[in-house]
Amino acid sequence: MTSYANLLKPLHLGFTTIKNRVVMGSMHTGLEDRFYNYPKLAAYFEERAKGGVGLIVTGGISPNRQGWLAPAGGTMNSLFDVPQHRLVTHAVHKHGSKILMQILHAGRYGYQPFVVSSTAIKSPISPFKPRQLSEKNILSTIEDYAQCADIAKKAGYDGVEIMGSEGYLINQFLSSHVNQRTDRWGGDIENRMRFPVEIVKAIRAKVGEKFIICFRLSLLDLVHDGNTMQEVVIVAKALEKAGVTLLNTGIGWHEARVPTIVTSVPRAAFVDYTAHVKQHISIPIIASNRINMPETAEEILATGKADMVQMARPLLADAFWVNKTATNRVDEINTCIACNQACLDHAFKNKRVSCLVNPRAGHETELVYLKTKQPKRIAVVGGGVAGMSAATVAASRGHAVTLFEATSDVGGQFNFAKVVPGKEEFHETIRYFKVQLEKTGVDVRLNTRVNREQLEREGFGEVIVATGVIPRALKIEGSNAPQVLSYAQVLKGAEVGQKVAVIGAGGIGFDVSEFLLKPPHQPQPQPLAEWQREWGVDPDPNYISEGGMQPPVVELPVRQIYLLQRKTTPLGIGLGKTSGWVHRAQLKKHGVRMLRGVQYKAVTDEGLWIEHNGQDQLLRVDTIVVCAGQESVKDLMPKEGESTIANYYIIGGAKLAAELDAKRAIKEGAELAARL
Ligand code: NAP
Ligand code: SF4
């Protein structure tokens, strides 16, 4: 018996049984839009089924052309769609998991010219103004949902999930934020919920009783004129009556300006809203958002707050999450750090979804770690994430690997990231790699700086140079003064004054600014109540505020900060699509002054002299923190033409500092190790 008894308990639905309480939530991978990608999609889902997940929900498939998220998006409206989907359902069923196809009509969120909605009001996140659906169009759309579910059944799915949250079409009917109709589809909640209720009834009539209908309901809209909890409960009860088998939950519309999934959102932040709805219905309910580790998931179930837990990104990060939990190997889980960099940021750029910490995600047929038939002696120099990725993959394939790290610990740049407020999850990646280094038998030599002679003398035939980066120094008059610090010094705890200029507004400039806004602290997650106050989220699970929003309360920052860059583009424009706005909002709320088009002139005892808008200006600051990017450390690499005994390879920041990026570093390490 493991300590995760609730998580691993089967869920009996009468006509079928789900083998445990873990749902892999819907995540659009980009593979579902083209029939020729379905073998890859099947392999992606099969790996998760093999990993033990109870129930999988596919990425969103539209019931018709108007519902496309993007031009020619995945659609199911003909029997010709059946064979490709059969590949997916067959692959999942082989391993005893169940799978639902998500039906998603994007409504006004569609990034295409045929968009429709309850009312012709443009969304802030798509340039296309929707056409208002007429009574006739509404009825035919309901019929399209039913037909889509019927075809899904023929393709072997165990059921469908109707996407009714995150601000898509159904939400656009459910909430007055968009729905301004005066006919029987608009007005009070009884009318606004008519559209989803009729969809459920039409599907149930078509597919019969022995087919799962899951409905993903928005529990907290987080937009103005959003529903109250009383309205959410009315809808939940009506959906149950109409024939829903499972109620899934969604938090926040995509256009909401409150973060709901990024790494700074506390774990399980929204589960109390799920617990509230659970009291009013008798069908099983699924908790979602920022659940990434078994302890959190088990606690939700053990305390009766939900019947199942949904994770999408954590199962991209580790396909074997459930099996590792079931066999008491939780320390081996590759934890999703909620960075969004390779999943949602890719999805929003129409790129195939993958995972920063697991580059195999979405590439299961292409990045394969086969056992080697010719074991080699491999030296990996540098214990950052690039080096650890290369070392662990190479060792897992059967090579004899030694990892040399010059400092007293592995982790590299992640050791800086994990102390930034809201980035505490990054320590999980270091923990994961440390456990993998041990399990795969890598010989780790800390406090060991090596040169080529030593490596070759020890007989290494392959040397992977992952020596990383050093922070770029500022080269202006006075920049050697003691009040000029690198970001590395600051994040390691150097003393910083009350007034600060941060030079460089890349990811690290933003991180350092956030770090300096708060008093010195132990790196630990922000308490939920404080986070709710800061972002204006109503903490009352039975909230009466519209969309669950309240005026935010921002604590005074402990420092006055200038964030500076030379470029004239808006600051933070290069940050991740789905997380950059959160960082920009945080700094703005805390009064950080952001200046662009700045030239740095000199550091004096008075502060930092800059030229801005054609004028010399003195910023009277006590400390200047340099976040001006990095330079590669690659002394170990042989020069071109230089003869060596071993083969040398270079990866990560050592290879290219200009785009120092953990996603590329981990991927390069894994890809190289898969080839050796
Ligand atoms: P970066 O993104 O390259 O930003 C460094 C900034 O410093 C540049 O935007 C540049 O802006 C400025 N700069 C460059 N050379 C300079 C010089 N000689 N003097 C003064 N300013 C100079 O690098 P980073 O912030 O160190 O981040 C490194 C990588 O870490 C990023 O690429 C990102 O992938 C990752 N990261 C991301 C996040 C996130 O998304 N939240 C957080 C942390 C790290 P100007 O030339 O315009 O001044
Ligand atoms: Fe999680 Fe980041 Fe991987 Fe996305 S890319 S699944 S957020 S770790």
Quick structural summary:
By secondary structure, the chain is an alpha/beta fold. The protein has an 8-stranded parallel sheet with strand order 10-9-8-5-4-3-12-11. It has a 5-stranded parallel sheet with strand order 15-14-13-16-27, with helices on one face. A 5-stranded parallel sheet has the order 18-25-19-20-21. It starts with 10 loop residues before the first strand and ends with a helix.
Describe the fold and architecture.
The protein is α/β, with parallel strands linked by helices. 29% of the residues lie in helices and 17% in strands. It contains 21 helices and 27 strands. The chain is globular and about 75 Å long. The two termini are 40 Å apart. Iron/sulfur cluster binds next to helix 10.
Detail the topology: elements first, then pairings.
Layout lengths: L10 E2 L4 E2 L3 E3 L13 H13 L4 E7 L20 H12 L4 E6 L12 E2 L13 E2 L2 H20 L4 E6 L4 H6 L14 H4 L1 H14 L4 E9 L8 H14 L3 E6 L19 H8 L7 E2 L6 H9 L5 E4 L1 H5 L3 H6 L17 H4 L29 E5 L3 H12 L3 E5 L9 H4 L8 H14 L3 E3 L6 H6 L4 E4 L3 E3 L12 E3 H5 L7 E5 L3 H11 L10 H8 L24 E5 L15 H10 L3 E3 L3 E6 L2 E6 L2 E5 L3 E4 L3 E3 L14 E4 L11 H14 L1
Parallel strand pairs: 3-4, 3-12, 4-5, 5-8, 6-7, 8-9, 9-10, 11-12, 13-14, 13-16, 14-15, 16-27, 18-25, 19-20, 19-25, 20-21
Antiparallel strand pairs: 1-2, 17-26, 22-23, 23-24
NADP nicotinamide-adenine-dinucleotide phosphate binds next to helix 18.
